[in-house]
Amino acid sequence: MADVLSVIPASVLRNLSDKLYEKRKNAAIEIEGIVKQLASSGDHGKISAVINLLAMEFAYSPQANHRKGGLIGLAATTVGLTSEASQHLEQIVPPVLSSFSDQDSRVRYYACEALYNIAKVVRGDFVIFFNQIFNALCKLSADSDVNVQSAAHLLDRLVKDIVTECDQFSIEEFIPLLRERMNVLNPYFRQFLVGWITVLDSVPDIDMLGFLPDFLDGLFNMLSDSSHEIRQQADSALSEFLQEIKNSPSVDYGRMTEILVQRAAAPDVFTRLTAITWINEFVKLGGDQLFPYYADILGDILPCISDKEEKIRVVALETNEALRAVEANPTENFDVGAVLSIARRQLDSEWEATRIEALNWISTLLNRYRAEVFCFLNDKFDTLLKALSDSSDEVVLRVLDIHASMAQDPLHFRQLVVFLMHNFRVDRSLLERRGALIIRRLCVLLDAERVYRELSTILEGEADLDFACVMVQALNLILLTSSELSDLRELLKQSLFNAAGKDLFVSFYASWCHSPMAIISLCLLAQTYQHACAVIQSLVEEDINAKFLVQLDKLIRLLETPIFSYLRLQLLEPRRYIWLLKALYGLLMVLPQQSAAFKILRRRLKTVPSGDQLKRASSGNPYSQVLHHSGSKITGDGDMDQYNGNLQNGIDLASLQQFKQMQQQHHMLAKSRAQLRDCSTSLLKEAIKSRTRTTSNIRDKEASFNII
């Protein structure tokens, strides 16, 4: 201490702690001159003593003016040392850094000023304290005093200049410090951090891109900041990094993808859009590095396809298409099961577009990795089947496409049809709303005959007779009206002449017996008019109810459509098609006379030529001899002898017994239900009477009590 006092006059030390800035400044100038003399003489021992005095007696003093003087003195000492200052930085810088957290804002201000002057002198040697300085500047960027903030900004710019020109800066040591602070919420801190990231990224010798995964999440977090300026700065930094990624041959896509996947589900629109945009570029650039992350990416892309923001939807759709276009190999870290699970999960989405794209993914996976998909099918099959009840027609059609692809395997075909029947059984509204759509689509995809044969086989043994009747009626209506089943109708029309047609008719017959109107329709379609007539004549009182008449009304109207044009033309030859005429008159007799169907059918039958009309028509017809061929006889269905053998081998009146037996089961079920209703009604009446008697007795007793 005595040595220092001999070097620095007491008056200088006194002025250094004066409350007036000018006196402190003048004292600092004198100290600068003294230090210069000591440095020129090489007396570094005394220089260390001076620095120690300024630190311990002034910079760390409890008196604010002493601390201010100490800071300006340390800066003056550094200026005096010039090129030799670097060997004393271990003594000079720590007291200044300590003053950055001083309670007095003026002390903090002078600390910034002191460190600024020190940094200008030592330049690159200053970098050894970079992490501590960075930490201090980060705090000062949000200082409550505006002057301190301004001083900190000036110092910050100088430090940035020094770092960008310095070879000693260690990015590896700095990144952990940056990573710790990236999730701060203070807007000043965020501005400070983004500024440093941008500056360091501009330095050619510093590879910030290699460390991007360490602070990428923080940058994305800033995109939702309330400050427009911060959002803009973060977006600008991210855009620059994305451009660098496009131009870089080596990028760690994996770690960044994990971050992007999380941010793509952020509530903030701008953050979601930016994350999806990055993922879109990654899909194009990442190649096989992204294979392990396909499931996670897909889990974000599919919901974004239905995003409220159009920009997000557009980018998500583009990304989805690019992702699906990549044909990955399961042996290359591509997890088919994980991607399939994500697609299955998205089938529960409330958005139609997302569900459709999820189904497109399942279809793509099934086409490319059929064996692998079938390994996971047990877990996904039920979900796919349940999707048939979706509210969207397009979703249902896509589901059916997938099921049709799977149904190439007979086992899955059977499963599909059985499940459909189960769903229709438990949810009759599904049958009403979607039954026709589902069955028609399956007929297109899987061959109508195959589908109808399987449905007929299942219905033949159906225990729920009511459901069987409703289902057969639905299938019959589809068969009669759908353009997709035109080939099936043509085959059935040849039932009397063609073995395949006869076999198809027989396969339908047993299940169609659940509904009288369905079996009549089938016979009219197959031109087995004699059998149709027999079925009509076998109808009993229980058969002709309101439901039957509704079905009959539909059939009469269908007879006027192009589908049954062949039948109407056959009425031109009543002698040849006598059983057709009888069948139609039988239906007319069943219909109420005031019904619209009765009037339609009666008008049609009135147009049938009479005997005299036929004679006049045949006399002028050069081909009439064909109708009266000497060696031929006409059967009831208009077939000549050459077809009689086929008719005997097909459906004849003996088959009527099968129809009667089935209808008997329906009658017994109806009677048992009627008896049950009657029993329930009787019990209810008895209960009401009993309660009435009890109430009457109570009232009588109350009346007697009142009289007493």
Automatic annotation (TrEMBL):
<dbReference type="GO" id="GO:0070772">
    <property type="term" value="C:PAS complex"/>
</dbReference>
<dbReference type="InterPro" id="IPR011989">
    <property type="entry name" value="ARM-like"/>
</dbReference>
<dbReference type="InterPro" id="IPR016024">
    <property type="entry name" value="ARM-type_fold"/>
</dbReference>
<dbReference type="InterPro" id="IPR026825">
    <property type="entry name" value="Vac14"/>
</dbReference>
<dbReference type="Pfam" id="PF11916">
    <property type="entry name" value="Vac14_Fig4_bd"/>
</dbReference>
<dbReference type="InterPro" id="IPR021841">
    <property type="entry name" value="VAC14_Fig4p-bd"/>
</dbReference>
<protein>
    <recommendedName>
        <fullName>Vacuolar protein 14 C-terminal Fig4-binding domain-containing protein</fullName>
    </recommendedName>
</protein>
<feature type="repeat" description="HEAT">
    <location>
        <begin position="92"/>
        <end position="127"/>
    </location>
</feature>
<keyword id="KW-0472">Membrane</keyword>
<dbReference type="GO" id="GO:0006661">
    <property type="term" value="P:phosphatidylinositol biosynthetic process"/>
</dbReference>
<comment type="similarity">
    <text>Belongs to the VAC14 family.</text>
</comment>
<keyword id="KW-0677">Repeat</keyword>
<feature type="domain" description="Vacuolar protein 14 C-terminal Fig4-binding">
    <location>
        <begin position="429"/>
        <end position="608"/>
    </location>
</feature>
<dbReference type="Pfam" id="PF12755">
    <property type="entry name" value="Vac14_Fab1_bd"/>
</dbReference>
<dbReference type="InterPro" id="IPR021133">
    <property type="entry name" value="HEAT_type_2"/>
</dbReference>
<dbReference type="GO" id="GO:0010008">
    <property type="term" value="C:endosome membrane"/>
</dbReference>
